[in-house]
From TrEMBL:
Highest rank taxon of the organism: Bacteria
Annotated region described as Disordered, given as residue ranges: 282-301, 482-505
Domain Helicase HerA central: 11-76
Native organism taxonomy: Bacteria, Pseudomonadati, Pseudomonadota, Alphaproteobacteria, Hyphomicrobiales
Keywords attached to this entry: ATP-binding, Nucleotide-binding
Organism listed in the record: Alsobacter ponti
Keyword RNA-binding appears in the UniProt entry: no
Protein name (database record): ATP-binding protein
UniProt feature, compositional bias: Pro residues: 285-299
SUPFAM superfamilies: P-loop containing nucleoside triphosphate hydrolases
GO molecular function: ATP binding
Keyword ATP-binding: yes
Gene3D superfamilies documented for this protein: P-loop containing nucleotide triphosphate hydrolases (3.40.50.300)
Length: 505
């Protein structure tokens, strides 16, 4: 299911759409001088995508904490130890809570250390919690500078390493980096180079205009246009936005920044004598100086972790949906899984992506109740990949096969059930192509290795009849498939290496 979000208006008055799934796979870079509307753009993107994907915002100025009131983001004040921030980040991924890391009040080195610890916790989460997450880093040149500054080398290496992991290696872990910077020249090249989508706003320096034009594939003579862009106007390019440079104007937002642009206020009329009395009046001798107000103390780490562990409740539910009967709900979830797997490319997507799509479809159909967690979804997906009908799931024999497969490794369950279904229906043994698709691969050699491994562990016994057709037997169930149609290569024969069409020579 393709999910697009509305970013505003494109040239010609058409809606400016962003493909959210493509963004999660290809990352985004935003450039614009101070006052060009970068924060407004990020806020629009976060608001539009909040219902569909988990979010984490690294906020150096505290501008995005207002998302908590409208969209339920958890605000994490960074004035705590690095170990606490890593632990909080790990819990964030586990419980799928959108957060804002508020770095306001820290110096540059403190911000870099805290951001590195938090991003490291997101990156090092367990594989079971690699759900898709949009990670937005505002003022990215602070955390991934191109040159050494006033901070220590240790803090710079920690922060730069965390940003590099986010942009270079985060995709496989479900982390989609979105970085915004005032100047491309100040941002480390290995961080900027990993983005495939670009939104370029107003900039004035020749070197920044030239780099922006190069990234967008524009002529150097066209780079002057970036100097004339209005506030909130950007030029977009990338697989999630447009295949050609596309000017767009960012739409309105629902939440407001805490720090807006300065506004002109008329000066109050004052006489010279009054001003002198106000400014130079001596303080009373017996009056102590006014104490400097202390910033509010951030909540304890234990309170943050306890809040993360609580089930996430919607901020303001419009109306309560009556709970669906269990049988009807199970049938609806089975139908959703069948619809997902009906897409030819669904078998080759990571389980975390399919799980995210499954949850969105459940919300659309208002199934209600607690959604299955990731391990339970893996079990349902293995059963659905076996292509057993909903009526077959009611049979005692099929239920016995499903219960036995629960004790197998996760990557073998779907293959075992595929063979069990064929045996139960007295159908031919699944071929290499069918087994490969079930495990999310297009390689017949990998399918043969999986079958050989299952035979080595005793889950399946493979044999061939006198015509050379493969037969799979399930000794624990006492079932056997019919002979596979056509001759098959013996499992002991090593597969010929597959040629890489993109290899040199």
């Amino acid at each position: 299911m393709k999910i697009t979000i509305d970013m505003g208006l494109a040239a010609g008055g058409a809606p400016a759409l962003m493909d959210l799934e493509e963004l999660l796979a290809t990352r985004l870079l935003v450039q614009g001088n101070s006052g060009s509307g970068k924060s407004h753009l990020l806020r629009r993107m976060l608001e539009q995508s909040a219902p569909y994907v988990q979010q984490a915002i690294v906020d150096p100025e505290g501008d995005f904490v207002t998302l908590a009131d409208r969209f339920g983001h958890l605000v994490v004040d960074a004035q705590r130890s690095e170990a606490d921030l890593q632990r909080i980040a790990s819990r964030v991924r586990q419980h799928r809570v959108s957060v804002v890391l508020n770095l306001e009040g820290l110096d540059a080195e403190g911000q870099m250390r805290c951001a590195a610890a938090f991003l490291g916790g997101l990156f090092d989460a367990d594989r079971d919690y690699w759900y898709p997450m949009l990670v937005v880093v505002d003022e990215a040149q602070v955390f991934a500078p191109s040159a050494a500054g006033d901070v220590s080398d240790e803090a710079r290496k920690l922060s730069l390493g965390a940003m590099t992991n986010l942009m270079c290696r985060g995709r496989k872990r479900g982390l989609a980096g979105v970085v915004a910077t005032q100047r491309l020249a100040k941002l480390a090249k290995n961080v900027a180079a990993e983005a495939s989508n670009f939104l370029m706003g107003r900039t004035f320096l020749d070197i920044d205009m030239a780099r922006a034009a190069d990234l967008l594939g524009m002529d150097r003579r066209q780079s002057e246009m970036f100097r004339d862009l209005e506030r909130g106007h950007f030029v977009a390019l990338g697989p999630a936005l447009s295949r050609r440079p596309l000017p767009m104007r960012i739409g309105a937002v629902q939440t407001a920044e805490r720090s807006g642009s300065p506004k002109l206020v008329p000066m109050a009329p004052q006489t010279l004598e009054n001003v002198q009395d106000l400014i130079f009046q001596p303080a009373p001798q017996d009056e102590p100086p006014a104490p400097r107000p202390r910033p509010p103390r951030p909540p304890a780490t234990a309170d943050i972790l306890a809040q993360l562990a609580q089930p996430r409740q919607p901020a303001a539910p419009a109306e309560t949906t009556p709970e669906m009967p269990k049988e009807e709900r199970e049938a609806a979830m089975a139908a959703i899984l069948r619809d997902i797997l009906a897409d030819e490319d669904a078998a080759f997507h990571p389980v975390a992506i399919l799980y995210q799509d499954f949850l969105v479809r459940c919300r659309i159909q208002r199934l209600g109740g607690d959604a299955p967690d990731l391990p339970a979804f893996r079990r349902r997906l293995a059963v659905a990949k076996a292509d057993a009908s909903f009526e077959a799931e009611k049979g005692e024999e099929w239920r016995r096969a499903v219960e036995f497969s629960a004790g197998l490794p996760e990557d073998l369950q779907s293959v075992f059930l595929l063979v069990a279904r064929a045996a139960l229906e007295n159908a031919p043994c699944p071929g290499d192509a069918e087994v490969a698709r079930t495990i999310g691969s297009r390689s017949p050699a990998r399918a043969r290795r999986i079958m050989a491994y299952m035979e080595e562990k005793g889950f399946v016994i493979l044999r061939t009849d006198f015509r050379g057709n493969r037969i799979a037997a399930l000794p624990d169930l006492g079932w056997e498939t019919a002979p596979q149609d056509g001759r098959v290569t013996a499992p002991a024969t090593p597969a010929a290496p597959e040629r890489d069409l993109f290899a040199a020579g």
